[in-house]
Amino acid sequence: MSLYGKKELPADERPTVQVTAVTWPMEDTPVGSPPTTGTGASGPRRGRRGLLVTGGVVVALLAATAGTGGYAYAGEVPRGIQVLGAELGGKSRAAATTALQAELDRRAAEFTQPVPVRVADQTVQLDPAAIGLTVDVPATVEAAAAARPDPLRRLFGSHPVDPVVAVDQAKLDAVLRTALGKQARQMTMPGIKFSGTTPKPAYPAPSRDVDAEESARVVRAGWLTGQPITVPLVEKHPATSREEVDRLVAELARPAVAAPVKVTTPAGAVTIAPRTIASSLVFTADKAGKLTHRVDAKKLRTGLAGQLSKIEVEPKNARVLIEGGKPKVVPGTAGRQLDTEALSTALLDVLPKTDGREVSGTLKASEPETTPEEVAKLGIKERVSTFTTKFTGGLSAPRSQNIVTIAKAVDGAVVKPGATFSLNGHTGERSYAKGYRDAPVILDGKLVPGVGGGTSQFTTTLFNATYYAGLEDVEHKPHSYWFSRYPPVIESTIFWPDLDFKFRNNTPYGVVIDTSYTSSSVTVSIWSTRIWDSVKTEWSPRRNITKPRTIYLPPGPSCIATNGIDGFTQDAWRIFRKDGREVRREKFSWTYQAEPRYLCAKQPGT
């Protein structure tokens, strides 16, 4: 049932018009003679008289209407205006607001009843208060004041005005979406991805969901009508169609990986392989489902990494060299780099082609990250720590060569105040291409040949140099077994990419890592400005001693025999002294496993 109602105007508010008949004398009748009746010559005269009488009524009506105009337009709200049965006509806005609010309060129970709304095959009972569904009184009064019923309706009848209904669109949308549940369907975005070098299309599909704005409009319009309310489901189609996806596959994705692309530069040429193209050609859809494509410059550079050394030159930062026992600032040098951003754009014109797959590459200057002025301000003026470990076999041994190679890679590294140094991050993967060789490494509890074996000795040397410089330990891990060439507990291994060594420069001064080596040792010194009087170590006695077991391994070139080492647990305290007193100590603890005694022989009795 509608919530609208009608009221008759009170009798004392109805406008009245009084009409008085007027008699006009005939032109041919003497004054004082009785009026002539009948037909004949006198007929037209009588007709004229009747016309004059009728015209007089109209004139009188118009005069009466004009006379009551002020009455009909009295108040800010025109007379005759009703809202929800409340008489607002002839009232000021304030009085109309009071009258309408009083009517709403009187019928409050009607406006707080749950409102059944159907969405898909679900019916949800909406609580008006929970979704802000209400009559907007100020807006309704303004609508009533703006209404313009015809003048006669103002005088003789009523003019209903619809109330303005408000609803919290966000809250309504949340309730409807909860009711819709799994019946809603998200838009399936179009896309193209590569499996190897084969493009795989993803076809679009429209969403099926409620539309917040439309839902609010329907609920506002239907709330007070007494009629069932059904919120429509809206389908939204992606901007890119299935046919467009197929066209992109046929005209771009498939030819893009059909053959390599040659990139020529003033320093030489590199080749972009189909797999690199596939990994860097990216198709993405925006919120509207519009599919676009681009070449990802970072992915392109990663795919070209093995070739870029032929045409690129790495910039060298300004650095500190130690000459004659003193630090000296040396300017850096600029390098050159392939502009992969520009190349990514240029490739888009070439990839759809089946021939002529060649593009020019631009080499741009690559400036050092650190200037001499910046290095000079770091306050690097003295050696604050140094540490040496010894190795055997001479410089010709593969293990020694690996130690020398990583020492050269780290030599001169500058770590700014607050920065964290990562050994893996600085050297990258230790590979054959970088000069590393096969040497024994610990893998799954035993020594096996592996590229970069021996770099853990350099890691331990660097760790101790930073340890005695008082720098903050961020990440390190001692070896599984203890080797006598290392101090117990305060030593570190490394393995790409899982195990790293990191320290943070927690001083206000810069730090320079200075490395050197001999035929039997490697040394790392830290140069900066001294903060501590001394940094020393105290060890606890060893405990929980375990003995090695004997394991027989199949003889062969990959078998490495060992004598076995005891396992134990031990603590080490790093002690900081300043101004002649101990100011801090840090505890390090580690448990070493007993290294098995590996024999490259057949087990007796088998």
Q: What's the gist of this structure?
A:
The chain is of the alpha+beta class. Among the domains are: 246-372, Roll (Ubiquitin-like (UB roll)); 379-600, no CATH class.
Structure write-up:
The protein is of the alpha+beta class and 606 residues long. Among the domains are: 246-372, Roll (Ubiquitin-like (UB roll)); 379-600, no CATH class. It contains 17 helices and 36 strands. The chain has a 4-stranded antiparallel sheet. Strands 31, 32, 34 and 35 form a 4-stranded antiparallel sheet that branches. Helix 15 (398-410) crosses helix 17. It is elongated and about 115 Å long. The relative contact order is 0.06. Residues 1-68 have low confidence and may be disordered. InterPro entries: Glycopeptide_resist_protein (IPR052913), Vancomycin_resist_VanW (IPR007391), YoaR-like_PG-bd (IPR022029). Residues 29-47 have a biased composition (Low complexity). It comes from Micromonospora echinofusca.
